[in-house]
Predict the 3D structure of the following.
Amino acid sequence: MTRHSDHRTRGPCVESSVTPQMVADIEETLSHVSDIRAARIVVSPEGVILEIHVLALPTKTAKQLARDIESTIMAVYGIAIDHKVISIAQLGQESLPESDGHSIPRARIVSIQAEVSGVQVSVTVVLEVEGEPYSGQAIGSNSRTERKRLVALATLHALEQYTHALVAFALEDVQVVELGGEKVAVSCVTIITSLGEQSFSGSALVRQNEKDSIVRATLDAINRRMGFLTTS
């Protein structure tokens, strides 16, 4: 297990306070972030978050994980977290799931198109999974906020084509936030199967444009589950 002490410096992270129930909710949300296995939060008597401790797989750097944590808490709860209160302990390589000889399917972006008609906009996202194209479309009002949701929804609809409707996706929220001078797209998705439902979040730095980053953030929430989406 590797401990990263560069995130352990204490300091106030937010001006607003959180309730015990919010602490439990945030811990639960973080435990569903890609590569994070457990999360515990320490608060002051006034309810200010003092420390965030997470246990994670060694598949991302501590800096990337810290950004994911900041992005998720900001997007879901509207709370700005100081990275200095985040403490990350990463498991060793032996903790990674063993490969059975089959690579995990990954979705790749083929194209993203938006067509405006009056006050309506139609967004089409084409993904490639295992060499096959899958297209998803979402239509709604042509507002700034709705366009973000439509891009994420079209992405999920394309993935539903891949799963042949064995799995359904619900978009909980999608935001583009600013962290450390960078714009970050964050997407929160619930996967619904015959066994129940589970929520995950993903993030992606805005490099080309917001649409591309929203698709990548949505895929980041889903990609690691692609191997069993069609066998649920």
The first strand starts at residue 2 and ends at 4.
